[in-house]
Amino acid sequence: MLARGMQTNGKQFDLLPAATNMTQLAWSCQLELEAIKALENVCNTANPSRPNSGGKASIYVDKFQGVVSAEIFFAQNLREILSKVDTFVGFQFTRSGSVKINPIYRAEKGIKDYANVAWAATKNVGCSIVKCTTDDRYVSVCRYTPSGNIVGESIYKIGPYCSSNPGTTQSCDKNTGLWP
């Protein structure tokens, strides 16, 4: 949706600008294994470890609160990540409401996870989840490559979708606005 300019910015329900260069995310079993490893000992009440993001992860923790399955938890997690666009101030608007410049990542509070998902050059994702029964919570980690969230860099280039090839030899999918 974001690539084609159909993602709303949340509370104002304005459409965010389309991306010229956004790549499609593919599942990575290697990143899933890294996420599994990052979750080792996270539920150990005697010696808990916080998952190491390594600069390329989204970490999400939640109490059960009606969560009945990992699938529902991940759906709630994704909704939470997408809601962070409400706090994103990387877009600068003209008086007419059009965006002046590409959205720049500035490490604003609460936007890291959204930027991980929206980062145009990110191609791979792998996630894992653990259910901690001792304190009624789920913890999930998603890892991304190539790693984005580089302070001062553009999250994506604004313009007509599919108009700026990010270096692939394949064609952009006009239905999704994503490059392979």
TrEMBL record:
Domain SCP positions: 9-152
SMART domains xref list: SCP
Entries under InterPro entries matching the protein: CAP_dom, CAP_sf, CRISP-related
One Pfam match: CAP
TM ranges: none
PANTHER family: CYSTEINE-RICH SECRETORY PROTEIN-RELATED (PTHR10334)
Protein name, per record: SCP-like protein
